[in-house]
Amino acid sequence: MRDGYIARYLGREYEASPDGDTVRLYRPEPAEGFEEVRPGRHVRVVPAAEVDELAYVRSVCNWRGQPFIVLAEHEAWLRVEYTGGKAPVAAELGLEEFDYGVYQGWAPKQEVTDLRESRL
To answer: Is-above-0.70 flag for pTM?
Structure first.
């Protein structure tokens, strides 16, 4: 499940972090131009103007006919956050109020439909 920025640079897609006029690109393996910041994490800072695409990617789905963002996965379960905006529906689904107007819960993966990535 992905939830974060991605950038396409020189024909390859990377996890990314925009920072003003630059973009930090991340990869797990060493590569030319990348500096190891910790084991399994390498970064390269490039001008934002040189990035072919910058987008925010998140995993979304439907559960019991309602729209959700997927926050995490554990075994046969998905941690989901309701995006329908209706408190009575959230209560009917048995979701917990994580913050004011923010409803989350665990959904059995086999009950989830239309699991996909959404680029914002």
So the answer is: yes
Q: How far apart are CA 17 and CA 54, in angstroms?
A: 9
Q: What is the model's pLDDT at position 1?
A: 77
Tokens of 53: 């695409």
Dist CA 20 CA 38 (whole Å): 24
Residue 64 contacts residue 93 (beta carbons within 8 Å): yes
* Percent of the chain whose predicted confidence (pLDDT) is above 90: 96
Backbone angles phi, psi at 91, to 5 degrees: -65, -40
Q: Tokens 């989350």 label which residue? A: 104
CA distance 47 to 58: 24
User: What is the phi-psi region of residue 45: left when phi exceeds 0, alpha when psi lies from -120 to 50, beta otherwise?
Assistant: beta
Angle subtended at Cα 10 by Cα 55 and Cα 118, rounded to the nearest 5 degrees: 20
